[in-house]
Design a protein that fits this description.
Length: 242
């Protein structure tokens, strides 16, 4: 959990620096246009780019991705516990542009996740023991979940261009049908994410997204073991802007 927070903190610091730079550039741009013109109109006039994200733009999208294995490089599960795991996720995206100029755009994001699938998950199995007590063993199986990550921020760079690199952080929760990632971890998990990628506009209001995100799941010390499930999720998505 602490390792993932450090990763998210680094990304958040980079985004904060970017936001400060965006606002400074925005102030310069606004000073150069007529005071009666809106900020959106000023940006559009200055660039003439059909791919420019503007303040107040709404994004409606869908995306899905997969982690082909769990990682131990940021702590969390031991190697024997991480072995054989995969993670599949699909989500609906809502985003709103909070601030934008010709160089960059800052966006709030919310992902509604109807499907989160943890394969190779260790699940406890209670069986009667010969002495009349009960013994708990673990087996691997797929575990389903769903949730929401409403604490997202994204910075898109090269806002005038149809290919925009971005940084993204997000947080929220997932609820699974069985404990994840260990038998005593509990069904309720907190989620932390940090990643990067490319947003590729295929027209002025439609875009394809390709990215990778560090995805962390843990129970926040709410129950049992708090060793987290850490994975790199490779994903793709499609969005419409209005």
């Amino acid at each position: 959990m602490r390792s993932s927070l450090r990763v998210a903190a680094v990304i958040l610091f980079m985004m904060t620096v970017s936001i400060i730079e965006i606002r400074a550039q925005g102030a310069d741009n606004n000073a150069s246009v007529n005071s009666n013109s809106s900020e959106n109109a000023a940006s559009q006039t200055a660039s003439g780019s059909p791919y420019l994200l503007k303040k107040g733009d709404n994004e409606f999208g869908i995306w899905g991705g997969m982690a082909f294995k769990a990682t131990t490089i940021f702590g969390g599960l031991r190697e024997d516990e991480a072995r054989g795991r995969k993670f599949v996720v699909a989500a609906f995206r809502y985003g709103r542009t909070l601030f934008a100029n010709r160089s960059a755009a800052l966006q709030y994001t919310l992902d509604a996740i109807p499907l989160a699938l943890a394969t190779g998950n260790l699940v406890g199995n209670v069986q009667p023991a010969p002495n009349g007590s009960f013994a708990t063993t673990a087996r691997r199986e797929s575990t389903y979940g769903a949730g929401v990550t409403p604490l997202g921020l994204q910075v898109d760079f090269r806002n005038e261009h149809h290919i925009k690199p971005f940084l993204h952080v997000n947080g929220g929760l997932l609820v699974f049908t069985k404990p994840v990632p260990l038998p005593d971890s509990g069904k309720f998990s907190y989620v932390g994410e940090a990643g990067t990628g490319l947003r590729i506009f295929t027209s002025d209001r439609r875009a394809v997204t390709l990215g990778v995100r560090f995805h962390h799941i843990s129970n926040g010390n709410r129950s049992g073991s708090n060793r987290g499930l850490n994975e790199f999720v490779i994903y793709a998505g499609f969005s419409i802007f209005k």
